[in-house]
Design a protein that fits this description.
The chain is α/β, with parallel strands linked by helices and about 475 residues long. The chain has 3 domains: about 210 residues, 3-Layer(bba) Sandwich (FAD/NAD(P)-binding domain), CATH 3.50.50.60; about 110 residues, FAD/NAD(P)-binding domain; about 120 residues, 2-Layer Sandwich (Enolase-like, domain 1). About 30% of the residues lie in helices and about 25% in strands. It is built from 13 helices and 22 strands. Strands 1, 2, 3, 4, 5, 6 and 17 form a 7-stranded mixed sheet that branches. The chain has a 5-stranded parallel sheet with strand order 8-15-9-10-11, with helices on one face. Helix 7 links the parallel strand 10 and strand 11. Helix 1 packs parallel to helix 8 and helix 3 packs across helix 5. It starts with a strand and ends in a 14-residue tail after the last helix. About 45% of the residues are buried. Bound molecules: flavin-adenine dinucleotide and nicotinamide-adenine-dinucleotide. Flavin-adenine dinucleotide binds next to helix 1, strand 2, helix 2, helix 3 and strand 4. Its EC number is 1.6.1.1. GO terms for molecular function: NAD(P)+ transhydrogenase (Si-specific) activity. Its cofactor is FAD. It is an enzyme of class 1 (oxidoreductase).
Length: about 475
């Protein structure tokens, strides 16, 4: 029986980063992956495919040029599902190739099959042909991720009623679509298909969407979606979903009946822990298949077993999963990592993008911190004029007492890139003066930071600097 210092189950962002980190520390590492290719949800059905689809949709529709040439402008008149898929396959091949090369360079061993616990340090790997290999692990990292939540009362048919994995396989672009669930996945796909001129309706049981985002940003975003004729139905629960002559019908609890060519059910995800036989190692998942860990070490209740990535719940991002995997691996092999910086960014690749880092205005109020905001609209920047942008805004929140940046919130073109300037200032504990006193490239959208900084400065006034007596020459 082969034995390893660290066995990583799952090759998504958490597993991949963990395996390479442990290998760099000269440990014997094995990655077990049940999928046909390494990369996890992130590469095959999640982050990379959805972002590639978004980029293709924006390029082929000419979306970014519509500010100049009008809403009817298109780069390609008839866009097919194959047009969208073509770029996807090239991107995915490249991602897998890079990852396999990383594993090979770092001598991370790989095994294809489904991992199941025999006991806390023994794992069976069942291959596709039924062969079972037994391995021994000093430590194990569960980086098994999640899969779409598919309740039994929804008649999924992989054609007109689908989940977010199946959307990548559609044969034709639907003319109309109902998206159930206004979470990040639902909203990203809803806005991408709306950009492709699909008539989109979103149904969400809560009274609003994206509750963890600053309310003012969500309001601006919501206005933009409604302005382009997307239907957003909040506070309504779905009673039933039915197939209907090649279409689908969604009946809401209030009696409203919606019909569309396609329904995307995007009401959350569940941890992929069902195949692990957790009972054999003394662990138990919650009712959504998720595992509890120590948030500093990612150790589960069983000391030699760690869990990281989506299987441990919020924030469920590829970016944070990688970092969690790295921290877990270091702890598992006895080389603990330093605490990560306090603030990480969150990027929602909807059309338009949203990105945020630090506290929202609602959180600042809740904590009783005296504050002031500065806002810039992209149309106030010269780069915005050049790009034909009439939407997009950047908001910063500052402490009145310390003048430190507390949060940065952006909606609009380039938001997910722009946010990193604010993130750096936040984590380096910078103040309003950084934005007011620094020179930014011109013309850029980053100039919005300067404009928002000046907007806050106009309300907060000058920094009161006590006069310092010049020191005598030493
Ligand atoms: C549609 C969509 C869009 C997203 N967009 C973004 C985005 O823009 N930015 C972002 O940061 N995040 C995004 N995410 C989230 C991101 O994909 C996840 O946070 C990330 O993939 C989680 O990584 P992970 O390592 O936890 O596991 P995953 O990527 O979920 O990978 C888990 C792997 O474990 C394998 N596995 C499971 N069980 C077993 C077993 N028993 N034996 C062997 N192998 C097993 C699976 O086959 C899978 O390959 C998106 C997710 C989705 C679904
Ligand atoms: N850009 C990104 O970073 C990105 C993109 C996509 C996904 N993700 C991650 O993937 C995770 C999963 O995303 P998600 O959108 O599937 O889940 P989610 O939990 O974010 O959203 C699910 C939504 O569905 C609604 N809902 C729940 N039950 C419902 C029901 N029965 N009927 C109708 N609506 C219902 C919820 O109120 C919620 O708004 C997220 O945590 C997110 O962080 C990240």
């Amino acid at each position: 029986m082969q034995s390893f210092d660290l066995v990583v189950i799952g090759s998504g962002p958490a597993g991949r980063r963990a395996a390479i980190q442990a290998a760099k520390l000269e440990k014997k590492v094995l990655v077990v992956e049940k999928g046909s290719r390494v990369g996890g949800v992130s590469v095959h059905t999640g982050t990379i495919p959805s972002k590639t689809l978004r980029e293709t949709a924006l390029n082929l529709t000419g979306w970014r040029e519509r500010g100049f040439y009008g809403r009817a402008y298109r780069v390609k008149q008839e866009i097919s599902a194959d047009d969208l898929r073509r770029r996807l396959l090239i991107t995915l091949d490249h991602e897998v190739d890079v990852l396999e090369h990383q594993f090979a360079r770092n001598r991370v061993q790989q095994m294809r099959g489904t991992a199941t616990f025999v006991d806390a340090n023994t794992i069976d790997v069942t291959k596709d042909d039924g062969e079972v290999l037994r391995i021994q692990s000093r430590s194990t990292l569960l980086a098994v991720g999640t899969k779409p939540y598919r309740p039994s009362h929804i008649p999924f048919d992989n054609s007109s009623i689908i989940d977010s994995d199946e959307i990548l396989e559609i044969k034709e672009l639907p003319r109309s679509m109902i998206v159930i669930g206004a979470g990040v996945i639902g909203i990203e796909y809803a806005t991408i298909f709306s950009a492709l001129d699909t008539q989109v309706t979103v149904v969400e049981p809560r009274d609003s969407m994206l509750d963890f985002i600053d309310k003012e940003i969500v309001e601006d975003f919501t206005y933009q979606l409604r302005d382009r004729n997307m239907k957003l139905i909040f506070g309504q629960t779905v009673e039933s979903v039915e197939k209907l002559d090649g279409k689908a019908r969604v009946i809401l609890k209030n009696g409203r009946c919606l019909t569309a060519e396609m329904v995307l059910f995007a009401a959350g995800r569940v941890g992929a822990t069902d195949k692990l036989n957790l009972a054999a190692c003394g662990l138990e998942a919650d009712n959504r298949g998720r595992l509890k860990v120590n948030p500093e070490t990612f150790q589960t209740a069983v000391p030699s077993i760690y869990a990281a990535g989506d299987v441990v719940g919020f924030p469920s991002l590829a970016s944070t999963s990688m970092e969690q995997g790295r921290i877990a691996a270091r702890h598992a092999v006895g080389a603990p990592a330093q605490d990560p910086p306090q603030f990480f960014p969150y990027g929602i690749y909807a059309v338009p993008e949203i990105s945020t880092c630090g506290l929202t205005e609602e959180e600042v109020i809740q904590r009783g911190i005296p504050y002031e905001c500065g806002i810039a609209h992209f149309r106030e920047t010269s780069r915005g004029h050049i790009m034909g942008l009439d939407t997009g805004m950047l908001k910063m929140i500052f402490s009145l007492k310390t003048r430190r940046l507390l949060g940065v919130h952006i909606v609009g073109e380039g938001a997910t890139e722009l946010v990193h300037i604010g993130q750096a200032v936040l984590n380096l504990k910078g103040t309003l003066e950084y934005f007011v006193e620094n020179t930014f490239n011109y013309p850029t959208l980053a100039e919005a930071y300067k404009i928002a900084g000046l907007d806050a400065w106009n309300r907060m006034g000058e920094l009161k600097v006590e006069k310092v007596e010049p020191r005598a020459a030493e």
